[in-house]
Specification:
elongated; 95 residues; mainly alpha; 0% strand; 4 helices
Amino acid sequence: MSFLYKMRWFFRTKWPVYTAAIILMVVSTLLNTIAPRIIGSVIDSIRSGTLTEASLMRTVWLLIGLAVAVYVTFYIFSAADGSRRLRGKAAGRSA
Protein backbone atom coordinates (compact mmCIF):
# COMPACT_ATOMS: atom_id res chain seq x y z
CA MET A 1 0.00 0.00 0.00
CA SER A 2 2.89 2.37 0.68
CA PHE A 3 3.99 1.92 -2.95
CA LEU A 4 0.64 3.22 -4.18
CA TYR A 5 0.84 6.08 -1.72
CA LYS A 6 4.27 7.05 -3.05
CA MET A 7 3.03 6.84 -6.64
CA ARG A 8 -0.11 8.92 -6.12
CA TRP A 9 1.47 11.94 -7.84
CA PHE A 10 1.91 9.82 -10.97
CA PHE A 11 -1.65 8.51 -10.85
CA ARG A 12 -3.00 12.02 -10.36
CA THR A 13 -1.25 13.25 -13.50
CA LYS A 14 -2.25 10.21 -15.57
CA TRP A 15 -5.79 9.61 -14.29
CA PRO A 16 -7.53 10.29 -17.65
CA VAL A 17 -5.41 7.64 -19.37
CA TYR A 18 -6.01 5.06 -16.66
CA THR A 19 -9.72 5.85 -16.53
CA ALA A 20 -10.06 5.43 -20.30
CA ALA A 21 -8.06 2.19 -20.19
CA ILE A 22 -10.24 0.74 -17.44
CA ILE A 23 -13.43 1.72 -19.27
CA LEU A 24 -12.17 0.17 -22.52
CA MET A 25 -11.19 -3.04 -20.73
CA VAL A 26 -14.62 -3.30 -19.08
CA VAL A 27 -16.41 -2.63 -22.39
CA SER A 28 -14.24 -5.19 -24.17
CA THR A 29 -14.92 -7.80 -21.48
CA LEU A 30 -18.66 -7.19 -21.65
CA LEU A 31 -18.65 -7.41 -25.45
CA ASN A 32 -16.76 -10.69 -25.27
CA THR A 33 -19.39 -12.22 -23.00
CA ILE A 34 -22.28 -11.43 -25.35
CA ALA A 35 -21.30 -13.79 -28.22
CA PRO A 36 -21.47 -17.04 -26.20
CA ARG A 37 -24.88 -16.03 -24.88
CA ILE A 38 -26.16 -15.36 -28.42
CA ILE A 39 -24.75 -18.63 -29.72
CA GLY A 40 -26.33 -20.48 -26.79
CA SER A 41 -29.74 -19.04 -27.60
CA VAL A 42 -29.35 -20.03 -31.27
CA ILE A 43 -28.49 -23.58 -30.21
CA ASP A 44 -31.55 -23.63 -27.97
CA SER A 45 -33.67 -22.44 -30.91
CA ILE A 46 -32.23 -25.19 -33.13
CA ARG A 47 -32.97 -27.87 -30.52
CA SER A 48 -36.52 -26.64 -29.99
CA GLY A 49 -37.13 -26.27 -33.75
CA THR A 50 -38.06 -22.58 -33.57
CA LEU A 51 -35.10 -21.20 -35.52
CA THR A 52 -36.16 -19.39 -38.67
CA GLU A 53 -34.03 -18.17 -41.53
CA ALA A 54 -34.79 -14.55 -40.64
CA SER A 55 -33.74 -14.97 -37.02
CA LEU A 56 -30.59 -16.82 -38.07
CA MET A 57 -29.62 -14.02 -40.46
CA ARG A 58 -30.34 -11.42 -37.79
CA THR A 59 -28.12 -13.34 -35.39
CA VAL A 60 -25.31 -13.66 -37.94
CA TRP A 61 -25.37 -9.90 -38.59
CA LEU A 62 -25.45 -9.25 -34.86
CA LEU A 63 -22.38 -11.45 -34.35
CA ILE A 64 -20.56 -9.68 -37.19
CA GLY A 65 -21.39 -6.31 -35.63
CA LEU A 66 -20.24 -7.58 -32.27
CA ALA A 67 -16.93 -8.74 -33.76
CA VAL A 68 -16.41 -5.31 -35.30
CA ALA A 69 -17.20 -3.62 -31.97
CA VAL A 70 -14.69 -5.85 -30.14
CA TYR A 71 -12.06 -5.11 -32.78
CA VAL A 72 -12.65 -1.35 -32.60
CA THR A 73 -12.46 -1.39 -28.81
CA PHE A 74 -9.20 -3.34 -28.93
CA TYR A 75 -7.81 -1.08 -31.66
CA ILE A 76 -8.54 2.08 -29.67
CA PHE A 77 -6.89 0.58 -26.60
CA SER A 78 -3.85 -0.53 -28.62
CA ALA A 79 -3.57 2.80 -30.43
CA ALA A 80 -3.62 4.67 -27.14
CA ASP A 81 -0.81 2.49 -25.83
CA GLY A 82 1.18 2.87 -29.04
CA SER A 83 0.84 6.64 -29.10
CA ARG A 84 2.06 6.79 -25.51
CA ARG A 85 5.15 4.81 -26.48
CA LEU A 86 5.85 7.09 -29.43
CA ARG A 87 5.60 10.18 -27.22
CA GLY A 88 8.10 8.59 -24.84
CA LYS A 89 10.58 7.87 -27.64
CA ALA A 90 10.17 11.35 -29.10
CA ALA A 91 11.08 12.84 -25.73
CA GLY A 92 14.34 10.87 -25.75
CA ARG A 93 13.43 8.11 -23.34
CA SER A 94 12.33 4.55 -23.99
CA ALA A 95 8.84 3.58 -22.87
